[in-house]
Automatic annotation (TrEMBL):
<comment type="function">
    <text>Mediates electron transfer from NADH to oxygen, reducing it to water. This modular protein has 3 redox cofactors, in other organisms the same activity requires 2 or 3 proteins.</text>
</comment>
<dbReference type="InterPro" id="IPR036866">
    <property type="entry name" value="RibonucZ/Hydroxyglut_hydro"/>
</dbReference>
<dbReference type="InterPro" id="IPR008254">
    <property type="entry name" value="Flavodoxin/NO_synth"/>
</dbReference>
<keyword id="KW-0249">Electron transport</keyword>
<dbReference type="Pfam" id="PF19583">
    <property type="entry name" value="ODP"/>
</dbReference>
<feature type="domain" description="Flavodoxin-like">
    <location>
        <begin position="265"/>
        <end position="403"/>
    </location>
</feature>
<dbReference type="InterPro" id="IPR001226">
    <property type="entry name" value="Flavodoxin_CS"/>
</dbReference>
<dbReference type="GO" id="GO:0010181">
    <property type="term" value="F:FMN binding"/>
</dbReference>
<dbReference type="InterPro" id="IPR029039">
    <property type="entry name" value="Flavoprotein-like_sf"/>
</dbReference>
<protein>
    <submittedName>
        <fullName>Diflavin flavoprotein</fullName>
    </submittedName>
</protein>
<dbReference type="InterPro" id="IPR002563">
    <property type="entry name" value="Flavin_Rdtase-like_dom"/>
</dbReference>
<dbReference type="InterPro" id="IPR051285">
    <property type="entry name" value="NADH_oxidoreductase_modular"/>
</dbReference>
<comment type="similarity">
    <text>In the C-terminal section; belongs to the flavodoxin reductase family.</text>
</comment>
<dbReference type="InterPro" id="IPR001279">
    <property type="entry name" value="Metallo-B-lactamas"/>
</dbReference>
<dbReference type="GO" id="GO:0016646">
    <property type="term" value="F:oxidoreductase activity, acting on the CH-NH group of donors, NAD or NADP as acceptor"/>
</dbReference>
<dbReference type="InterPro" id="IPR012349">
    <property type="entry name" value="Split_barrel_FMN-bd"/>
</dbReference>
<dbReference type="Pfam" id="PF01613">
    <property type="entry name" value="Flavin_Reduct"/>
</dbReference>
């Protein structure tokens, strides 16, 4: 076998070499950044690999995109009489690829296109005239080219490439892996003999393309590793021959590492023409770079039960949509319904989308989430038509901002668990796991105002609206203990450290209201303006119990001060003290 290596060129070119019996690689090469998507940002160039198997029958695998059409066909025709070509196998389809396909199909009317069923459906929609030339295959299907080249197909659907198809040739033990096991790097070296040097590019490629779909990649690996391949022939970068086991192991490890991140974000989207998908991938990068697991959900492919499961398990969710005919696609509307009925209000949310002129889908998503009181982790991203390098960067930064906010809120919400069982009675620890809304009760005695921090509040009646509030004797809350006493319950907002002014030490030393913006309620007590909401209350009943009191108070009036926040919660180590 001659693994011919051609002279380097700084211009785009096509490198051709034999990589196995009857098998050529045609590598369309560019040393420049091919596209502005994040996956190309390391600027090492890339190769678009195509393969030609010439046995009794002839198959071309994955012709490149339109930036190479001309130079690729020039090279191809030096090694193949197009009139003898039988099949073109496609690992996936995208609009960019169709330019080369159109030329090939026009020149070779006998050629059949072989692809997965989703790819076939997509092609038939856009090119109905090709219908009779498209042959869709499934995992158990094979194609006999003669001379031992008995090709088998393996469908490998992922959120990003729902139509993914790998091809295995037992004659050469080459597995054509399309988007798996690639790297964006352009060199003369065809194989991976110096594979350690490729580590950074391989990992970056995985992070950009596969980390947000780690679960589906694992399923694909299960299908591919049983084949016993000796080489991987990917769509980009060197052919994998020397590091096949190591690279497969790395993929497993990277998937595991991704899935075991402490924080996880569900990234839901639909995209008819690919623009919203590009935004989703850029946001995913921002999250992944900040050690957050991303579950990419292409809403067109995932059933509602799976969306519900992922939404329940995630720490935050981000949803993106194109606008088509003034609406969000049905699948996005379904996903939104699931989110609104499933996701806890404490989950951080985000909205993005590509639109043309009116962008109703993005407005719908944002307004529904705001109305439902979700906190948004970044300013809603609206991109007209195709993203630009700037908007891609903006998406990455938004992903980063989202990850950081998520980490902060997780810290706030996570109770400190350091106490050992020898120090605190287990029962007290268990009682301490009851949590409540963090509030400041304000009372008034002539010109003196007082504030008491509490989280022992619960709604008790609907009609009249009434609450029960527990106070301990040491809280010295005499001004609110008797029927007819008035107070204001200020419900605090998560993320604002208002409580520090009302800790025991602060109250003893200072006037807690000196550093806070307040206003006077109609019952004379103070409203803390930084609170999320306040209730003006009148005590009706009091019950002395244990070392405290239980008060039932009727809510006279109240108001939400900030529409877009969530209530701060109080977590305690132990139920033995406040
Ligand atoms: C059939 C069709 C209908 C569209 N209707 C709207 C519309 O009502 N309002 C709008 O802002 N953009 C509209 N657009 C523009 C798309 O939102 C825009 O092309 C967007 O980039 C598509 O995103 P996608 O690539 O993620 O599918 C329409 C586009 C098409 C092809």
């Amino acid at each position: 076998m001659s693994a011919a290596t051609l002279t380097p060129s700084r211009k785009k070119d096509v490198q051709v070499a034999e990589i196995g019996k009857n098998t050529l690689i045609l590598r369309s090469r560019t040393w420049e950044r091919l596209k502005f998507e994040v996956e190309y940002s390391r600027q090492q160039g890339t190769t678009a690999n195509s393969y030609l198997i010439q046995a009794d029958k002839k198959v071309l695998i994955d012709p490149p995109g339109e930036s190479f059409t001309e130079i690729y066909l020039q090279q191809l025709t030096q090694h193949l009489d197009i009139n003898t070509l039988d099949y073109i196998v496609l690992g996936h389809v995208n609009p960019n690829r169709t330019a080369t396909l159109k030329v090939l199909l026009a020149q070779a009317p006998q050629v059949k296109l072989v692809c997965s069923r989703p790819a076939a459906n997509a092609l038939k929609t856009v090119f109905p005239e090709w219908e009779s030339r498209i042959q869709s295959v499934r995992s158990e299907n094979t194609l006999d080219l003669g001379q031992g080249h008995y090709l088998s197909f393996i469908t490998v659907p992922t959120p990003r490439w729902a139509d993914g198809l790998c091809t295995y040739d037992p004659a050469t033990k080459i597995l054509y892996t399309d988007k798996f096991f690639g790297a964006h790097i352009c060199e003369d070296t065809l194989f991976d003999e110096d594979w350690k040097r490729l580590g950074v590019e391989r990992r970056y490629y995985f992070d950009c393309l596969h980390a947000p779909q780690a679960k589906q990649v694992e399923v694909a690996l299960d299908k591919l590793t049983v084949l016993g391949a000796k080489s991987y022939a990917p769509a980009h970068g060197p052919v994998v021959r020397y590091s096949l086991s190591r690279f497969t192991y790395d993929y497993r490890q990277w998937c595991q590492a991704q899935k075991s991140q402490e924080l996880s974000v569900a990234l839901l989207y639909a995209s008819a023409y690919g623009n919203t998908a590009i935004l989703a991938n850029a946001i995913a990068q921002g999250l992944i770079q900040n050690a957050v697991n991303v579950e990419l959900i292409n809403c067109e492919l995932v059933d509602p039960a799976e969306i519900t499961r992922i939404i329940e398990a995630c720490d935050g969710f981000i949803i993106g949509s194109p606008t088509l005919g003034g609406h969000a696609p049905t699948q996005i509307q379904t996903a939104l319904g699931i989110v609104l009925s499933t996701a806890a209000k404490t989950k951080l949310a985000g909205v993005f989308g590509s639109y043309g002129w009116s962008g109703e889908a993005i407005d719908l998503l944002e307004s529904k989430l705001r109305d439902a009181n979700y906190r948004l982790g970044f300013e809603t991203i609206r991109v007209r038509f195709s993203p630009t390098p700037e908007t891609i960067k903006q998406c990455e930064l938004s992903g980063t901002a989202f990850a950081q906010t998520l980490k902060k809120s997780k810290k706030l919400r996570t109770p400190r668990q350091a106490v050992t069982e020898t120090h605190v009675d287990r029962t007290e620890q268990a009682v301490g796991r009851i949590i409540g809304s963090l509030c400041v009760v304000t009372t008034r005695d002539r010109e003196t105002h007082k504030g008491i921090l509490t989280s022992w509040v619960s709604q008790a009646t609907f009609n009249p609206p009434g609450i029960v509030i527990a106070i301990t004797k040491e809280q010295n809350a005499d001004l609110m203990r008797h029927p007819g006493d008035k107070f204001v319950l200020n419900i605090l907002k998560e993320g604002r450290n208002v409580r520090r002014y009302f800790s025991r030490q602060s109250v003893l030393d200072d006037n807690p209201f000196a550093n806070l913006s307040t206003q006077t309620a109609s019952n004379g007590c103070l409203i803390v303006n930084e609170a999320l909401a306040y209730l003006e209350c009148t005590v009706q009943n009091q019950l002395e119990c244990g070392d405290g009191y239980l008060l039932y108070a009727v809510v006279d009036t109240g108001e939400v001060l900030e529409n877009h926040g969530v209530t701060a919660l109080e977590h305690r180590k132990s139920g033995s003290h406040y």
